[in-house]
Structure formats: C-alpha cells, structure tokens
Design a protein that fits this description.
With 1128 residues, the protein is of the alpha+beta class. Helix content is 30%, strand content 24%.
C-alpha cells in the first residue's frame, strides 16, 4: 500500500528494485541460498518453533471462564466500553458495589467473610437464605414517596425475579456461595474448596456467580482459585428503584458507625463518583455470517485461481497444503503468544481471525513463488531461491513493517476489543513472515528441486524479450484479468482487508451511529470511549486490581446473562457504575507480599505440570521430522551436495568414467534413471550407474562371453529401465538391468549394416516389450520375445530411407515417419499385427534436395525438413499447419524443443514457445530459432490456419521470431529443459553467440552472462589437442546464459587416448548427457540432476522432440487431429 501512497512522488505503484549490490538485498539472497542448501535445518527450525508455540495452546485457553486461563473467542462481538459522560447517554441500569479487603490476598479468610456478611446485611437487610421468589403476603404494602426503610418482604417485592419494572433490583455476592449464612461460613472447613466447587452456582435471576464477578485480584493454581484480594458485593438496580437509594443512604451512615472496625476509602479517580460503561454481547447476525462466508469464498477462489495458474509446481495440492499449514501455524502461534502476554482475544468472533491473516499472507507467498518462476532454470536450486528471495524479501519486509505501523496506529484509535485484534494481527504478521522465511521457503526449494519450474520460465522469458515497439491490442482490464494476462495482485488487497475488517469491527460496537460519526470517533474528533486503567488510585490500600480494570475483565457470558435480565431483547446495555466504597478490616496487613505475576496462571501451571512432556514432545517431533526428511529427500540431498561445486555457482559439472575401456567407445545408450551402457572397440560392453556414483560392471564377464557376437550394431533401453537390447548381425540379446540376468534371444534377419532406428515399443500387457527395427531399405521389423519369428513390413521397396522418426506411446498404435532419398515421406501406422502406410505429397523439391523427418511425440505432429523450409504436419490428417522459413539447413542436423503442451477448450494443442535448432549448411554455425506468441496471455495454437481464432490464440503467422547463432558448436544436443549443451575445440575466449541486427537484441551486451574466466590460449597461437571445452547456452529466464567449462581439467588424470574427434553423445536424464572421448566417457551435468525414471521426457519441461526418444505414458494430446479453435 505504501507504494500507492508514494505514487505522486515516484510516478509508479510498483515496488522499487534494489540493485544487486544493495546490502539488504544481498542479505536476503544470502539467507535464501543458505536455507535452500540446508533444507532440513531450515525446516527443523520452523517445526521446532511451531511445536514450542502450538503445544501449549490447549493448556492456555479454555471455555471455562473461572479457572484463570485465557478465553477462546466465541461467535459473538463482546466488549466492555467506558463511555464519556458528555455524550449524555441515559443508562439502562445503575451498579453500586463495595469491596471488602482483609490482609493482602486474604479475602477468603473466615473473619473477612463474616465481617463482609455484616456489611451486606447492613446495606441490604437480612440476606440469609435469600429467596425473593418466596410467597409474599397479600397484605404487603409497597411504600409511596420518600422511603426511609423497607421490610424484607417489601424489599423482595421489588426484586427483578418478581417481574422487571423500572424499580427492579438484584445483587451478586460471594457470600451467596454459603447462602449468606454465618453458620455455614463458620462450619465450613475448607473455604477455598467451597468457592471452587460452587463457581458455577446461579443466583435467583440465573446469573452465574463467577469468580471474575464476585472476587477481585485472584490467584489461580492448577486451574483452581487459591486466593483473592477483595470480596465484591454488587447491587444492580433500575434508576427509580428504592433499593438503590436505601443502599446509598445506608452506606453513608455506615461510615461513621463502623469506623472503629473498618478503614473506609472512597475510590474517586479524577474526582468522579461514577462512570458510564457499555456492556455488549452481539451474536453473529445473518448479515455477519453472509459477509464472512463471502470473504472466505473470495479468498479461496482467489487462492485457487492463482495456484491453478502456476503451471510449474510439482504438486498444486501439496503447495496448497503448505500455504494453509503456514498460515494456520502462524495463527495458532499468535494465539499462544497473546495468551502469554495477557491479550484478551474473546471480544472478536473467532471466524474473523483467519480470513484477515490469509489475505495479508498470500501477498508475500505468491510474490515469492512468482519470483522463483522467473529465475533461470539452469541455475541450481539454492541460487534460484536466493535470487528470488533477494528480489522479494525486502518488499515483504517493507509490507510487513507497513502493516505493523498501520495496526499500531489503529490500535490507539479503536475500542479495546478491536485494539486486541490489532495486536493479534501484528503478532500473526511477524510469525507469518518468520514461517515464510523458514517453513515455506524450505518446502518451496524442495518443490523447485523436483520440478525446476522451467516451463513457466520459458513463458516469462518470452514476455521479457518482447519488443517495446510491438502494438498491443486494446483490451479491458477485466478481460485481461479473466484470461490470466495480468495478475489479480494482492499488494494492496491484504492491507485493505485488514483495515476494512478493523473498521467493520469498530462499527459493530457502535452500530447505532452513522459511518461518518464512527470514523470521526476513530480520528479522535469525538471520542466515545477511553482506556481502562490497570493501576488503582488508592496506593495506600495496594489493591491487586483497580475497579476499572476489574470491569474490563468481565467475560462475555456474564454480560450475556445480565443483558438477558436487564434488556431481554437487546444485545447491549449501558450502566452507570458508581465507584466502589472500599472497606479494609482494621488490623489487616496491606503491604505487598507478592508482586503481580508477569504471565497468566495457566502459563505457570503449564510449566509445572507439562514442562517435561513439552520438552520431550518437541525433541521427538524434531527427530521425527529429521528422519522423515532424510527418507523423503535423500536423493535430493545427495544431488544438492554433488551439483554446483563448493561455491554452488557453477552450473556445469563433469564426471569422468575412466578405466572402463582400453579402446575407443563406439556406442552409447542411456536411460533417465542414470543407467549408461557403452560399447567399445575393445569388445567390452559396460553398464554404468551414474546415480550411484559411476558403479560399473561388464556384460558376460562371469559367464560365457561367446553369447555376445560382435559387432553390436545398435542398442536401446526400455522406458522402465528394465531391459537392455543389443542388436547383432542376426539376433537381439536382452539383458535385465534389474535382476542382472540374460533374457530370451530374439532371432532377426541377418544384416551387418547399422539400422536407421532400433527402439522398444511400450506395452504393459507383456513382460518384455516388443522392439521395432527399421533398416535403410524401408523394412520395418517387429521383434517380440514371445514370437518365434519377426514380423516384417515393407514401407518402401524401391527407395532408400535417409531419415526416420517414431511415435510410440502406451495405449496408442505406433507410428513411423520416414523420408527417402528421392524426397518422398511415408507414414506407417501399426494396426494389430500388421501395418498400414500413407504417402505424403510435399510439393516441388529442388534438385538433390534432401528431406528429413523430425517427430514431435508430445504434440502428435512431425516436421518435414527441407533445405530452407520446415513444414509442421499433423500426424493424423497429414495436413501442413505452417511452414517455417529457415536458413540453409545441414541435413539431419535439426532438433526441436518446446514448452509444456496444453489442450485448449476446442481440442487444439497450444504452446508458449517453440524452438528449432540446426546447423547452418555453409558455416556450420548453430542457429537457434524461437517462436513465441505476439501478446502476453496468448498461446501458439496448432489449429487450422483457415479457421477464425479468438483472443487467446496466436496463429503461427503472427508469432514473434528470434534468432541466436552459436559459432563453432562442435557436437551438441538440446536438454529437455531447452538448454543447449555442446563440446568443441576451444578457439576463442569470446562468447560464441551472435545476434542478427534484424532481430531483437539481448538484454545485456552480447546477450550473455559469463560466469567464469577462461584460461588464455597459448601465446604461440597453437591449440592443444586436449583443449576441449563444454559450452552451455540458455535463452529461458530473465537473462540469457552462456557458460563454458574445460572438458578435461586435468589431462594427466583422465587417462584417455590421443583423440582428434569426439565419440558418440547421448542424453542420460533431464539435465545431463554423456560423450565419448576416445576410451573415456565424460558425463556432463547442468545444474541439478536427479536421475528419475521417465524424467527425461516429462511433458512441459521443454522436451527436445528427438526421433529416437519415446513418450512416457499416455498423452491426452495424441489421438486428435488439428481443428479450428472457436473457443481458444
């Protein structure tokens, strides 16, 4: 809200952006990195603090109003408000009282009780076995005019129990515990036990004799009254009641008659003999319930809408539970601290507390989540969390400080009950900020580590790279908000809800007044109430509690009962409360024998009886959370220790797998769970477990090695990482990676040429999935372990296959797309045990132009790649959706990756970004060509280009295009997150990325962010034969990232042979790949790598759509052709 107030000075409502060198921002960033790196420690701190503050909650609060514990809020507005006499409000009743003291906190002494009974009888007449409902003789005459005395029958006739009139009266006294009988008091052997047993006793008008109403200055222990400082005898009467006048006259007469036995004091602060008070008990009305229900509904809807737009979280339900848990833990922690600090929260309905804290907390939570989403995905989790917290932490701190200042100011202007709520809200804000920086930050870092949030980053990058000169379509704010183009920000909503609720609560206590008058009272224009004083003006008596503060302690159930007696149809009453006459028994010791305890009695009771269980419980909870987190996060913790180096700054890391082969590595195959299989020219086949640190074994080492016939032409691993298939000249060997055993041998037609494709077809109905073998002569062979012979299908008989792509997915028939040397494109679809094929007409070809295929398995589309164009084709209808213009493409060099696909309401597929990467045919430079929607909130729609589109659909013709060029890329690949990684000979220290002038420039000079200083080339200009370097380029996130790292940091330790060219390269998981360097395998990792099954092809992580990759699990996007999208 402060940024809105400063708009006229700053010209913007956005929070300021501190520089990265700012100390406050650096402090938050440093803490964020530490918290994300030490998740368990951070989580343990938050859980321990939460356990310390939540465990005492049931012991500090109660619904019993007489045991010394704090009172839980009810479903009602309650308060005791002192009023100003100048408001000229006529009271409904008058209250007079006397306070009887003995020695300090010895009011329950028998002698004090008997002396107080004498005073009571002097003021009211005989009260032994008081029962105003007893039969009154018909001959009783009620006096008229001036009254000098009344008989007991006449007195009782005016009692409210016999009918409410303008002369009614009743009284409350602790002596009623003993029926106002001196004999009962004398015969009672345990006065304190009697007072505790009869604490719920009712008077003749059904008003409970609670300890809070008949005693002042109480001491509790173990939820029982153990001492009291004063006996309070109270007379309540209407303005015209004769009993009130008699009480006043007799009290004046007593002062002279009993002066020998009593010290009498008149409590008259500021020279006043009486004050006006308003006692309220307003149950929640239907209007209140509807308003609170509407508020909760709007909060839940807003929360769910914001959460549903976060497409980069591992589990929305988990995140929702985390947010709710954080807020409720903050609320319960605040309740506990308020009980310790003696803040009375019983004045406001309990339903009002959570909704305000929810609104204020969501502001900081979603700001932090969105900041994490906008961080570069290639960076490690600790740095991303640190960067996000550095960008948002100081804003959250300013927001909390601003709200604390507002709450402090409001607490000085509103009624005491609302001021208590302001104190609670301030404490809850502090706790919520603490749990945000500990509990939520730790959980969020785990979620980031599991998902990397890359797809949302891609969208943010697209938005940040948009040219400022682009023309935006005119659109209303409501349309943009509903379509998700702008966020429903809570930067000011939380503060508005907080202030609004405080004003509404204040209005509830003064609902008979106009809004302007109420606001005027808040601003001290015409104050209606004043604070209740805790200290007594009678310093010589040393009262345990002043009469004013005693009135403020009256619980709402007492107010409810009194309202029912005085004004049965009302929710409040105004009483003129005369200051009590203080009677102190002569000879009493009123010196302070004990100071007022700092904390409520329940706190001391808790410490005496629950300290040991409390400490044990906290330790057990902390230990249990530690063990649970170690079990749940053991792989993430291992990864976080392994990735990023000591300083956690480097994204690239290299692991060498040496001593595995004596000669060069010829073939590599890998799966996402970290298994890597290598075949060397030394006729050794090794299986490496990268996740286990590089453990390895040799196939056939302890068995008859003749089972493996070399050469091995191809190999592949199934999607479950159970089976490894090795293709030799005339058979397929199967090795179980889980049970370490050979499977059945599958015979194949003899052929010593390397196939175009060799892959598993996922199928849950069989133990060993079938295999597809596609050879250059156009023959498709299906190999199954349960069939005796292969199943062949001739895709083409007269041509040679030059490029092939496959879509294999559970629940759908396999599809094979292939192009021939003559430029024909064939599409074969599996139908049961057979195949059917179609031929696609791709138009005129240039002489000697090569056509290649690139499949997009996540989308159900494929690319037909020619020298200068790329056709986007629907695999179901074979219709070309769009033709991309590209530079001269090196044959078979193109790769494609994209953002998470989603299905529009019309059934069409949509993306946030689409990237083509290929080698330029003449320069051999790597060209990265990215397409994004023209306007924020739109999606690239795979709909029929001839069909009309809606606002959220961006046709390919309107898509923005950006190009990047990387010189000398070497051997390269695209990781699932869209990060480009390659290995090349080092030729220059300068960034090898160019930006054409006719395309959008990068945010920084040269568009790059260099992380590390590279060694200077030798002075003689010669390049070492071992001078290989890894490069990494990412254009997702707020900044484009370029980083390099030597492939061989210590040449003498690698043990590789002399090499002039790199070996095969293969992707292992989501953020890693392996490359052969003669007889050594180099495993290159970018950021975090968890090696989870199926992780390398998670939809939405910018998966490179490579023809050899297989889609994991059924897809909701396949099986539907491209259609027009009238509802996009």
């Amino acid at each position: 809200m402060i940024w809105y107030l400063l708009y006229f000075f700053r010209g913007t409502t956005e929070p300021p952006v501190l520089s990265e060198s700012n100390r406050l921002r650096r402090a938050f960033a440093r803490y964020g990195r530490y918290a994300a790196s030490h998740v368990i420690t951070t989580l343990l701190v938050s859980v321990a603090v939460a356990a310390v503050l939540i465990y005492p909650f049931p012991f500090l609060y109660t619904t019993d109003f007489t045991n010394g514990a704090s009172i839980l809020p009810e479903h009602a507005w309650t308060d005791t408000l002192p009023l100003e006499d100048k408001n000229r409000v006529e009271p409904d009743v008058i209250m007079r009282s006397i306070w009887v003291h003995g020695s300090y906190f010895q009011a329950l002494n028998k002698s004090v009780l008997l002396s107080a009974l004498e005073l009571q009888d002097e003021l009211l007449g005989p009260t032994v076995n008081f029962d105003p409902r007893r039969h009154i003789a018909d001959g009783v005459d009620l006096p008229n005019g001036t009254i000098t005395d009344l008989t007991p029958d006449q007195r009782d006739a005016y009692h409210v129990a016999n009918g409410l009139t303008n002369e009614s009266w009743f009284f409350q006294s602790p002596l009623q515990y003993w029926s106002c009988s001196s004999e009962s008091i004398k015969s009672d052997d345990d006065i304190i036990a009697t007072a505790n047993e009869r604490k719920t006793q009712s008077t003749s008008v059904n008003v409970t004799l609670r300890h809070s109403t008949v005693f002042s200055g109480k001491r509790f222990q173990d939820r029982r009254l153990v001492a009291a400082d004063a006996l309070v005898i109270t007379l309540v009467h209407n303005r015209h009641s004769p009993i009130g006048r008699l009480w006043q006259e007799r009290a004046e007469a007593l002062k002279s008659r009993i002066a020998d036995n009593w010290d009498i004091f008149e409590y008259a602060p500021n020279g006043k003999t009486s004050e006006l008070y308003e006692f309220q008990f307003r149950p929640l009305s239907t209007q209140d319930v509807l308003l609170l229900g509407l508020a909760y509904t709007l909060v839940i809807i807003y929360f769910w809408l914001c959460l549903s737009k976060l497409r980069a979280v591992k589990s929305r339900v988990g995140l929702m539970v985390t947010v709710i848990a954080q807020i409720f833990v903050a609320i319960f922690s605040s309740f506990t601290l308020c009980a310790i600090l003696k803040i009375d929260l019983s004045r406001i309905p309990r339903l009002g507390y959570p909704v305000v804290i929810f609104c204020m907390s969501l502001e900081n939570i979603f700001r932090l989540i969105n900041a994490v989403i906008l961080t570069p995905p290639e960076e490690n989790t600790s740095k991303r969390i640190g960067q996000a917290l550095g960008e948002t932490g100081y804003i959250a701190l300013f927001s909390v400080t601003q709200n604390l200042v507002i709450l402090y100011a409001l607490s000085k202007l509103v009624s005491p009950g609302v001021a208590a709520f302001c104190n609670f809200a301030a404490i809850a804000l502090i706790f919520d900020f603490f749990y945000l920086l500990t509990f939520f930050l730790a959980v969020l870092s785990v979620d980031v580590r599991r998902t990397e949030l890359s797809d949302a980053l891609a969208k943010a990058s697209i938005r940040s790279h948009r040219s400022a000169s682009e023309t935006q379509l005119h659109q209303t704010w409501i349309d943009a908000m509903l379509q998700g183009r702008i966020a429903m920000s809570t930067r000011i909503a939380g503060t508005i809800v907080m202030v609004g609720f405080v004003l509404i609560a204040q209005w509830h206590f003064f609902e008979n007044e106009s809004v302007l008058k109420m606001l005027g009272r808040v601003a001290f224009i015409s104050p209606k109430h004043k604070d209740l004083s805790l200290s007594s003006a009678l310093t010589e008596v040393h009262q345990g509690r002043s009469p004013a503060s005693w009135l403020g302690l009256q619980d709402h159930m007492t107010a409810r009962e009194l309202i029912h007696v005085i004004k049965p149809d009302a929710h409040s009453y105004i009483a003129r409360v005369f200051h009590p006459t203080i009677f102190v028994l002569k000879g009493s010791d009123r010196n302070l024998s004990a100071n007022e305890p700092w904390f409520p009695p329940a706190v001391y009771d808790f410490w005496r009886h629950q300290s040991v269980p409390f400490v044990v419980t906290v330790l057990v909870i902390a230990a249990a959370v530690r063990l649970l987190m170690n079990y749940l996060l053991w792989d993430e913790l291992a990864d976080s220790e392994r990735v990023g180096g000591p300083d956690g700054d480097s994204l690239l890391s290299v692991q060498s797998l040496s001593s595995g082969h004596a000669l060069d590595v010829a073939l590599l195959s890998a799966c996402s769970d970290g298994h890597l299989v290598s075949v060397g020219l030394d006729r050794v086949i090794r299986v490496w477990d990268i996740k286990a640190g590089g453990k390895t074994y040799v196939l056939g080492e302890h068995e008859d090695s003749s089972i493996i016939q070399f050469p091995v032409l191809a190999m592949c691993i199934d999607e479950e990482s159970h089976w490894l298939a090795l293709l030799t000249a005339d058979k397929v060997l199967l090795w179980n990676l889980v049970d370490f055993r050979w499977g059945p041998v599958i015979r194949a037609e003899p052929d010593r040429h390397k196939p175009e494709a060799f892959l598993f077809v996922p199928d849950d109905s069989v133990i060993i999935p079938s295999l597809l073998l596609i050879r250059r002569d156009g023959k498709i062979t299906e190999l199954r372990a349960d069939y005796a012979g292969p199943n062949n299908f001739a895709l083409t008989r007269e041509s040679t296959i030059v490029s092939v792509g496959c879509i294999t997915e559970k629940g759908f028939p396999a599809q094979v797309m292939a192009s021939t040397r003559e430029g024909q494109v064939y599409i074969a679809t599996q139908e049961g045990t057979g195949w059917s094929s179609d031929v696609m007409n791709i138009g005129n070809l240039k002489p000697r132009e090569l056509v290649s295929i690139q499949v997009l398995p996540d989308l159900g589309f494929f690319l037909v790649i020619r020298s200068e164009t790329v056709d986007l084709v629907d695999s179901q209808t074979l219709r070309t959706i769009y033709t991309f213009k590209v530079g001269p493409v090196q044959p078979k060099s193109m790769k494609c990756f994209h953002s998470r696909p989603r299905r529009m309401r019309c059934g069409s597929v949509a993306l946030w970004s689409f990237t083509l990467a290929y080698l330029q045919a003449y320069t051999r430079d790597l060209v990265i060509q990215t397409y994004s929607p023209q306007h924020e909130g739109e999606s690239l729609c795979f709909c029929d280009p001839a069909s009309p589109t809606r606002k959220t659909c961006c046709p390919w013709q309107r898509a923005n295009e950006s190009k990047r060029t990387i010189k000398n890329p070497g051997v390269w690949d695209a990781l699932p997150s869209g990060i480009m990684v390659g290995v090349r000979r080092k030729t220059s220290d300068k960034p090898q990325v160019d930006t054409p002038q006719d395309h959008q420039p990068l945010p920084q000079p040269n568009g790059l962010r260099r992380r590390h200083h590279q060694p200077t080339p030798p002075a003689n200009g010669h390049i070492s034969q071992d001078n290989w370097e890894i490069w990494m380029f990412s254009h997702f996130g707020q900044k484009e990232t370029w980083e390099t790292l030597p492939l061989c940091s210590k040449v003498e330790d690698d043990g590789h042979l002399f090499v002039t060219n790199l070996g095969p390269m293969v992707r292992i998981g989501r953020a890693s790949l392996a490359v052969g360097l003669s007889n050594v395998i180099k495993v290159i990792m970018v950021g975090n790598e968890r090696f989870e099954t199926g992780d390398d092809s998670q939809p939405g992580d910018g998966m490179p759509a490579l023809g050899s990759r297989r889609r994991k699990g059924p897809s909701a996007l396949r099986g539907k052709s491209a259609t027009h999208c009238p509802h996009c």
